[in-house]
Amino acid sequence: MATLEPALSLRGDRRVRRRRIVNRAAEWLATIAALAAVAVLGIVVWSIAKRGAGDLSWGFLTKSLPLFGQPGGGIAPLIVGSAILVGIATAIALPVGVCIAVFLQEFASPRVRAPIQLVVDLMNGLPSIVIGIFVFGLLVYGHPENGLAGAYGLAIVMLPLITRATQEVLRLVPSAQREGALALGASRWRTVVGITLPSALGGILTGTVLAVARAAGETAPLLFATSIYANTVQWDPRHAMPNIPVQIFIWSESPDPADHKRAWASALVLMLFVLVTSLVARAAFVRSRRKLSR
Amino acid sequence: MTEEGNVHQTVTMPPMRPVDVAERQEAEPQARDTVFDIQGLTARYGTNVAIKDVNLEIYRNLITAVIGPSGCGKSTFIRCINRMNDDVPSFRLDGRVLYHGVDLYGDGVDPVEVRRRIGMVFQKPNPFPKTIYDNVAWAPRVLGLKKELDERVEKALRSAALWDEVKDRLKRSALSLSGGQQQRLCIARAIAIEPEVVLLDEPASALDPIATASIEELMHDLKRDYTIVIVTHNMQQAARVADRTAFFSLEVDDSGRAGVLVEYDETSKLFTAPSDKRTEDYVTGRFG
Predict the structure, then answer these.
(1) Which residues have a Cβ under 8 Å from the Cβ of B172 and sit 6 or more positions away?
(2) Which residue segments constitute the domains of chain A, with CATH numbers given?
(3) Is the pTM value of this prediction over 0.90?
(4) Candidates B115, B124, B142; nearest CB to A176
(5) 3-state secondary structure at position A250
(6) Which of B126, B139, B195 sits opposite A176 (nearest CB)?
(7) Which residue ranges form the domains of chain B, and what is each CATH number?
(8) Using one digit for the tens of pLDDT, what is the confidence trace for B72-120?
(9) Which partner for A65 in A29, A231, B74, B203 could form a disulfide, CB atoms 3.0-4.6 Å apart?
């Protein structure tokens, strides 16, 4: 039996109490910051939904752009154009980005890796308007505007995001997996293709979806490349293509209140597109994972 | 003999005497084929000497165990003989590792080809996150051995004593297997490409005693077809499975610490009548 020690106090002196207060304050600060982030997102979603939902209709999604000053019309050309632009950009940025990541993570010696890593990170910080001007000066100046140039611009935006995301997941693949494959007489390249990349597929997919979401909303790279377009659906990327971000910009600058409504509704469509894309990608990833674990 | 007598005996005698010494010596071929002839092998990581001046020969169709205390370079040694250390940036090697007379570190030797002939199984089971079938079939496919792949997979799984347990669920994930089964799958995976040598780096250290016993049993069956080198920190295991045993130890001198080969002999001799004091201390449990 323990004897009662009357002099023993576990309540702590002043210093202990002060530490407890500091600790609690830090906890609160962190919690508030997290809540603030969620709140900002909530406000954005709510305000766009509130202003855009009223004008959203089947006709709005399927009709051609309205002629200047006329009521009605829809954003079908914008949806098609944005989808094609982002599709081409992904087709370029995904393979190149994954290859860069594989090179940096699996093949490059530390001395080679450092400068290339730096370039990739700098690319990530490149202002998108600079990318827009770059693409304009290189590919558009002296030619008519075209969707391909815009897609290249978006690809430049996506490339560092995909590279970074892929690197992160490649780093997570246990080295025991690589060693296991190498010990079976597989070359480095076969090991990467057969073992490392499949393990990293989920993360690559997630990173790509994030990059797609980012590119779908990028306006600046498209501003000089594909902003003067017809009001009908354009399937051919060699011509200027209507697209959601640039049109939101144009409508929001317009004096016509009807255009403002269209801008809000388009913004809602863009947001839903990003949401649906990430949900679908996530579901596909979870499904492919479930097949292999257990 | 009484029970007390037994206890007394295990205390005074070297405890790890292999049971079937006579049988094992009988089974050994008279004229041995040398698979590896290792001459003056010194391995460094940066300025750190991991193993120093190791000389030994490894013979065909025998199980050779490498034992010794932690940090004595056992794993480094075994990884030197299928060039698994190549990717360690600071790794350097001196001396020669002759495989059938060819220096594995000589000019024009492709490490991929070396590892194709000298397979390796690691300490922790590392099955690929693929199906059981694909784990075994992956390497044959990569190496272009696609003919009769099903037969090859079955044969490998049978050799690894795993076939009966997995034949109904070849398309299930390898990660659904238990640790011991995973390790046997890794052995099946290694022998599916029919290497000549199988290196086992503490293959049972992450397994429970029952799984360990099945791996040891398996090794006895495998040595008919393969030359086996096993690293183990478990002396009893070496005594149970190995025909020959190499004892590595740490040598500390002015230039630092380095692993050295102390003694290399028939397992029975090394455990019952070691010629080196350090071996005796280690196998009788006075050190390590």
Answers:
(1) B131, B132
(2) 81-292 (1.10.3720.10)
(3) no
(4) B124
(5) helix
(6) B126
(7) 16-283 (3.40.50.300)
(8) 889 999 999 999 988 888 899 999 999 999 999 988 899 999 999 999 9
(9) A231
